[in-house]
C-alpha cells in the first residue's frame, strides 16, 4: 500500500478502522462480563491501542520511508477503530452517576495512565529491537 492518492489513503484508513473496531468488539464480548462495573474489554482496547501507537511512532521515526497509506492504516485506521475514548467516557460517567467516585477515579487512572505507559512501552520495545538488529 503506497502513499497513494486520497482514495487510496481513505481505503487504508477504512480497512484499518474496520479491523480495529472488530478487535474492540471482540475484546468487549470476551472480557466485559468478567467485571461489568469496570469493563476490561474497553481497558484492553485502550491499552493495546496505546502500545500499538507507541510502536508505530518508533517504527515510523526509524523508517521514515514507510508510505503514508501504511501509516494511516495503522494509526488513524486501526488504532482509531480500536481505541475507545467515547466508551471510556460513558463508562466513567455512568460510575459517577451512580455515586461510584472511587471506581470512576480508578477507571480514569487505569485508562489514561495505562495507555500512556503502554505507548511508552511500545515505543521502547521497537527502539530496543531496532538497536539489537
TrEMBL record:
<feature type="binding site">
    <location>
        <position position="83"/>
    </location>
    <ligand>
        <name>Na(+)</name>
    </ligand>
</feature>
<keyword id="KW-1003">Cell membrane</keyword>
<comment type="function">
    <text>Fluoride-specific ion channel. Important for reducing fluoride concentration in the cell, thus reducing its toxicity.</text>
</comment>
<comment type="similarity">
    <text>Belongs to the fluoride channel Fluc/FEX (TC 1.A.43) family.</text>
</comment>
<feature type="binding site">
    <location>
        <position position="80"/>
    </location>
    <ligand>
        <name>Na(+)</name>
    </ligand>
</feature>
<keyword id="KW-0407">Ion channel</keyword>
<dbReference type="InterPro" id="IPR003691">
    <property type="entry name" value="FluC"/>
</dbReference>
<keyword id="KW-0997">Cell inner membrane</keyword>
<feature type="transmembrane region" description="Helical">
    <location>
        <begin position="102"/>
        <end position="126"/>
    </location>
</feature>
<dbReference type="GO" id="GO:0062054">
    <property type="term" value="F:fluoride channel activity"/>
</dbReference>
<dbReference type="Pfam" id="PF02537">
    <property type="entry name" value="CRCB"/>
</dbReference>
<feature type="transmembrane region" description="Helical">
    <location>
        <begin position="72"/>
        <end position="96"/>
    </location>
</feature>
<dbReference type="GO" id="GO:0046872">
    <property type="term" value="F:metal ion binding"/>
</dbReference>
<dbReference type="GO" id="GO:0140114">
    <property type="term" value="P:cellular detoxification of fluoride"/>
</dbReference>
<keyword id="KW-1133">Transmembrane helix</keyword>
<keyword id="KW-0479">Metal-binding</keyword>
<keyword id="KW-0915">Sodium</keyword>
<feature type="transmembrane region" description="Helical">
    <location>
        <begin position="44"/>
        <end position="65"/>
    </location>
</feature>
<keyword id="KW-0812">Transmembrane</keyword>
<keyword id="KW-0406">Ion transport</keyword>
<dbReference type="GO" id="GO:0005886">
    <property type="term" value="C:plasma membrane"/>
</dbReference>
<keyword id="KW-0472">Membrane</keyword>
<protein>
    <recommendedName>
        <fullName>Fluoride-specific ion channel FluC</fullName>
    </recommendedName>
</protein>
<keyword id="KW-0813">Transport</keyword>
Amino acid at each position: 500500500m503506497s502513499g497513494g492518492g486520497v482514495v487510496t489513503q481513505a481505503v487504508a484508513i477504512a480497512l484499518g478502522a474496520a479491523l480495529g473496531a472488530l478487535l474492540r468488539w471482540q475484546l468487549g464480548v470476551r472480557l466485559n462480563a468478567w467485571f461489568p462495573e469496570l469493563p476490561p474489554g474497553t481497558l484492553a482496547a485502550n491499552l493495546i491501542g496505546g502500545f500499538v501507537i507507541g510502536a508505530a511512532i518508533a517504527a515510523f521515526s526509524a523508517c521514515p520511508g514507510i508510505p503514508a497509506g501504511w501509516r494511516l492504516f495503522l494509526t488513524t485506521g486501526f488504532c482509531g477503530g480500536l481505541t475507545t475514548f467515547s466508551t471510556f467516557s460513558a463508562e466513567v460517567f455512568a460510575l459517577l452517576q451512580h455515586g461510584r467516585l472511587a471506581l470512576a477515579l480508578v477507571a480514569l487512572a487505569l485508562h489514561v495512565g495505562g495507555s500512556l505507559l503502554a505507548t511508552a512501552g511500545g515505543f521502547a520495545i521497537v527502539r530496543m529491537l531496532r538497536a539489537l538488529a
